[in-house]
Automatic annotation (TrEMBL):
It comes from the Bacteria. The modification 4-aspartylphosphate is found at residue 54. The keyword Disulfide bond does not apply. Residues 3-121 form the Response regulatory domain. One of its GO terms (molecular function) is DNA binding. SMART domains: HTH_LUXR, REC. It comes from Phytohabitans aurantiacus. Keywords: DNA-binding, Phosphoprotein, Transcription, Transcription regulation. Signal peptide: none annotated. Residues 149-214 form the HTH luxR-type domain. This is DNA-binding response regulator.
Length: 221
């Protein structure tokens, strides 16, 4: 059973998400929070597998709450799935840097939202396509591009760099296997090794590493 905490300042939305989560046979809601501070406190208390985190909340926003949850050894195993109304939310990059494992829009179809919770709970990262584009645009927009950090990629093989590049472009394991003519098991092994070597929590963090090290260059769309 995947245990979920719902953090949103709108009671109606929290209730809707709770009904959706609790109707799934493999998911259950353990707590609700109306502010970022409550989300942090309740995560420490209930140790959920996944927090559905709104970005804009009073007292403490979802970015800071995510940073505290992911940065606290007592709650670091909890995955944070950011939900927002805005597909061009300026906090996308900040949320991922804070440790969020996923980022979806609130108008995501219910079935897709439940799938996202399961994916994030399993240790994978998940980004909506529009969010991936926004993340790339954020790098491209910066007046001073991030300096390459080649030492961060020490020990990463040429093949793993190829896989990391495709992960950064939003390809799934199946798509990467097809592109590189590899078995799905082999791709999963490469991704697993990348997560270990780069000390990344999940695929979302691998995207960040790929751009920050200069392995992948962002281009304005």
């Amino acid at each position: 059973m995947i245990r979920v905490l719902i953090a949103d300042d709108q009671a109606l939305l929290r209730g809707s998400f709770r009904v959706l989560v609790d109707l799934a046979p493999d998911l259950t809601t353990v707590a609700e929070a109306g502010t970022g501070a409550e989300a942090v406190a309740l995560t420490r208390t209930h140790q959920p597998d996944v927090v559905l985190m709104d970005v804009r909340m009073p007292e403490m926003d979802g970015i800071e709450a995510t940073r505290r949850i992911c940065g606290d050894p007592a709650t670091a195993s909890t995955r944070v799935l950011i939900l927002t109304t805005f597909d061009l939310d300026e906090y996308v990059y900040a949320a991922l840097r804070a440790g969020a494992s996923g980022f979806l829009l609130k108008d995501t179809p219910p079935a897709d939202l439940l799938t996202a919770v399961r994916v994030v709970a399993s240790g994978e990262g998940l980004l909506a396509p529009s969010v991936t584009r926004r993340l790339i645009a954020e790098f491209a927009r910066r007046p001073e591009p991030a300096r390459p950090l080649p030492r961060r990629l020490d020990g990463v093989t040429d093949r793993e760099r190829e896989v990391l590049t495709l992960v950064a472009h939003g390809l799934s394991n199946v798509e990467i296997a097809e592109r590189l003519t590899l078995s799905l098991a082999t791709v999963k092994t490469h991704v697993s090794r990348l997560l270990s070597k780069l000390h990344a929590r999940d695929r979302a963090q691998l995207v960040i590493v790929a751009y920050e090290t200069g392995l992948v260059a962002a281009h304005p769309s």
